[in-house]
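# nightly structure sweep
# worker-07 picked up a monomer target from the shared queue
# config: single-sequence mode, recycle default, output format = structure tokens
# input follows
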Amino acid sequence: MTEKQKINYLRIALGVQQLGIREKDLAKIIATYEALLEKKGNLNLRDIAEIEVSIDKKYKESKISL
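# output follows
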């Protein structure tokens, strides 16, 4: 499943529960969750910062290209 599909499904699930979250924040949640699973819960501050910077950069670039 692609990142975009995961974001869309999570957005739908949250919408059904009447919880609204921006797409960028959904991407951060998914990336953090996947990293937690991959590292069996052992995330450190560097991992968290890398996720945040990566998502921020991605969404900044996509905003500029619109």
